[in-house]
Amino acid sequence: MFQNNPLLFRVIDANLNRLKEGVRVVEDIARYINNDKALASQLKALRHQSKIDDLQNLLHSRDSLKDVLRPTVSSEMNRDSLESIIIANYKRAQESSRVLEEMYKIVDPELSENFKSIRYSLYQLEKENLLKD
Question: Where are the domains of the chain?
Fold first, then answer.
């Protein structure tokens, strides 16, 4: 059955890590650079909302050493401002939450809705964050 496929859990593990990492970067900029407690708190809540209880399946499926796209590509090094870092990490988190939403349609539809909610929250926070005066 596909629901217990280690390759599916590998996709979930990679995207869960990517989601949390992207949110953490924006959260830390809001917290330590912009001193924006409200935004940092909202991002922290989203990061905690992305917690998965099935850590064992995720860890068993992890194979980061054999990831074919592990080496850094030049576009990932192209950051020239805090804003470009913020944008890149919002996009990273949004894209990952979309992948998680789709994968969990197979595994657990309720969690799929959770990741959809996270994605839409990230869209709104990105807009509010980047359109501040």
Answer: 2-130
